[in-house]
Write a structure and sequence with these properties.
The protein is an all-alpha fold. It is built from 13 helices and no strands. α2 crosses α13, α7 (139-150) packs across α10 (180-209) and α8 runs antiparallel to α10.
Amino acid sequence: MARRRPARGVGRFAVLAVGLAYLALFLLVPLIAVFVEALARGIGAYAQAIADPDVLSAIRLTLLVAAIAVPLNLVFGVAAAWAVTKFQFPGKSMLITLIDLPFSVSPVVSGLVFVLLFGAQGWFGSWLQAHDVEIIFAVPGIVLATVFVTFPFVARELIPLMAEQGRADEEAAISLGASGWQTFRHVTLPNIRWGLLYGVLLCNARAMGEFGAVSVVSGHIRGKTNTMPLHVEILYNEYNFVAAFAVASLLALLALVTLALKSLLEWRYGIRERAGH
């Protein structure tokens, strides 16, 4: 047995080295390259690229879309998880399938579906034009596409958590005279708060970084319907590499902040779980 331990130690070290090398090659190096290219001409050129009106418009639109899509998906995710885990009803399996639908459908296809429905030649296009309502190539279409591709994240984070917790706490609260809202506010919500925050973070990250579905419905109108990922593509295609990487660095910073918050939540949740045991 004593002779086998060094071999096992070498094997663990080799696996760890391969994993770290893979992460460095495919994650760390590209991330560093983004910031190196963004600052290639100095802080002044970087600041000038960020201060461009079209870039500022893309940043505002990205934050606006995320500010609309994330709360909507938070409400839907909590309601869907509550229904799936706390009740039995006809069509429950269908609801679970619909929640998973955006994971199995390409974002580009989902964008094309919205064009088919709300575009000028779409099913509702003539009615929308008659009432002067713009959805495709406008902010509402971008919001709809973003909501569609991001709505599974909160629900999928909560469903396993709420299913594991069961219904005993809620049933006890109701038996003591609590209303449905009081039960949710004082019993269910405290039990799921970390999972809920985790799902919101993932939803927000996807909302700000979504490209495929938004690209189809936005129309790429500079200063109006370009989100940050779309504007990065336009700047890169125009060979404006410093500006493209500058905007990309902002997205990378948002991703790093999301990752840090995710790690913090996992750490806090782990401490809470150990304290509970």
